[in-house]
Amino acid sequence: MARTALLPLRPLALLLALLALITLLAQPSAAIASVTRRGKYLYQGNNRFYIKGIAYQEPAPIAASTAANDANGGFPEPDSFTDPLALPDACSRDVANFRDLGINTVRVYSVNSSLNHDACMSMFSNAGIYVILDLALPLNGSINRADPIWDVSLLGLYAGTIDAFTKYDNLLAVNVANEVVNVAANTDAAPFIKAAVRDIKAYLHSKNSNVLVSYSSTDGDSGPTNWRDMLAYYLTCGSAATSVDLYGLNSYAWCGNSSYTASGYDSLTTELASLPVPAYLSEFGCAAGIGANNRPWTEVAALYSQPMTNTFSGGVAFSYFPQPSGTNYGLVTVSGNSVTTQSDWQSLKRQFANTTSAPTSAPANASSSPSYATCQGDTDNFIASTVLPPTPNLQLCNCLASNAFSCALNPTAFNSPSVIGTLTGQACDYLGQQGGNCAPIMADGEAGTYGNYSFCSPAQRLEWAMSQFYEMTGFNAQSCNFAGNASAKNPPTPSTLAVNQAFSSCLSQFPIGVSTPKLDLPTSGSSASGGAAPSPTQSRSGSPNSASQPGSVWGGMGLVIVAALSAALAGWSIL
């Protein structure tokens, strides 16, 4: 009788154990449950989802204010940022606190898309924490309320961040802007915000992403004819294609042990009740008169119960990190790698823990198919036009820069926002003296007029103006010098006819209008800085395609398993 070949018992047991481990690891990791929007509410499965969040961004020094900023509300702006999602050690330290506080969301205000965010996003996902991510950056990386524009530089910056983050299963929403409009006089910025919403939604859809698109507004005078409410309805009007999916309001109206009526939350809830999209308090946590450490957080009980839940889907407490100056809203103190919670941490924790009675279903009369109202604008308190700027057309701008512009910036000036700003004013003045104007590179959100090249980068808009002046002066070499910051193209443009033909050719190839953005991300001359290199306080971590992405089952552990399996196989013998 033939003898059957057998594996030795010990290697066989090892092999079976390894195979079982491989099978276990090969199973997809439990993904965080998706959050969807139906009508004006958020859902996780069949139950309503409420944002229980905290603002998560270390504060930076405040930039010097400008006259234009002072004339538009004087809101302070940071001059730099540290990307909190690119610091794995800090995320590992803080995620335990997030669990303790009972939150499900963090709001992050600025990130560097060139850094690696796998570790932090994975840790947060495993802890059941979603991320609401602002796309703008400090200074030149956001819509400027004093001189609003929606251009290829901002679109490229935003798209680069989207490309870096849509792979993560816990990205809940991207925020196109924060507190751009802060007084009635700068509501002319609203068309640019709405255009950004439209184009970012189209870009996300082209990437097969269901991430929500949001905006966060500062609080203001209440009432249906005042700018706060009119902005909310303006950004949710028209159609699904141009409406935000999620509307945020930064409100500090409830201070200390206020009440639903005394705080004005009753009128706020009523006035925003007809929004066709979910709303939330994108910042809350007044410290006026009581100090941050003494906040009782009594607004939480109102925010997560009726009638507020008929309009709002939660909120984000401000803020995790302490502020170095002014009112300190920090819920923790940080010393090196050590974090200590403040006394009001426990108050917020208790309040969040008591929100279990929030309704799990929508009101009986709620519709899952939102109805978008006709857009309204051009009033005394809300001067925005209902006509939106076109989609920034990078291909057109690059075609013009390569083929139609006759005067070009030198590399140093091309990458200097301050030089570009100064020279643009000069070039437009020179054009005016020659009987021309800069209308083709200007945009006016109040009048609803947008020049054909107003969406090009600041450097490209300047090169247009310099080229126009150069051509109007008969291609005089001195007209394309601009204090040594520019020079004529080489080989030189042969004639005005050739320039006009180049413009016509570019416009026919890349027509102006509303479309899904197609991006070859700009490498220089951008008004938006910060997406191309680490901030001064950061270093590069890994490749965005490293094996540590959420859901990866291999990486270092996979190599260990393969090595062990090889060793086991090497130990087999035939009996």
UniProtKB/TrEMBL annotation:
Keywords of the record: Disulfide bond, Glycoprotein, GPI-anchor, Lipoprotein, Membrane, Signal, Transferase, Transmembrane, Transmembrane helix
GO molecular function: 1,3-beta-glucanosyltransferase activity
Annotated X8 domain residues: 405-508
Membrane topology value: Lipid-anchor; GPI-anchor
Listed GO biological process terms: fungal-type cell wall (1->3)-beta-D-glucan biosynthetic process; fungal-type cell wall organization
Cell compartment(s), UniProt: Cell envelope; Cell membrane; Membrane
Spans through the membrane: 553-574
Principal location: other
Keyword set includes Membrane: yes
Gene Ontology CC terms, in alphabetical order: plasma membrane; side of membrane
Location of region: Disordered: 521-550
InterPro entries: GH (IPR017853), Glucanosyltransferase (IPR004886), X8 (IPR012946)
UniProt feature, compositional bias: Polar residues: 538-550
Domain of life according to the entry: Eukaryota
Pfam families registered for this protein in UniProt: Glyco_hydro_72, X8
Residues in the signal sequence: 1-33
Ranges annotated as biased composition (Low complexity): 522-537
SUPFAM superfamilies in the record: (Trans)glycosidases (SSF51445)
Enzyme Commission identifier(s): 2.4.1.-
Purpose: Splits internally a 1,3-beta-glucan molecule and transfers the newly generated reducing end (the donor) to the non-reducing end of another 1,3-beta-glucan molecule (the acceptor) forming a 1,3-beta linkage, resulting in the elongation of 1,3-beta-glucan chains in the cell wall.
Family: Belongs to the glycosyl hydrolase 72 family.
Protein name: 1,3-beta-glucanosyltransferase
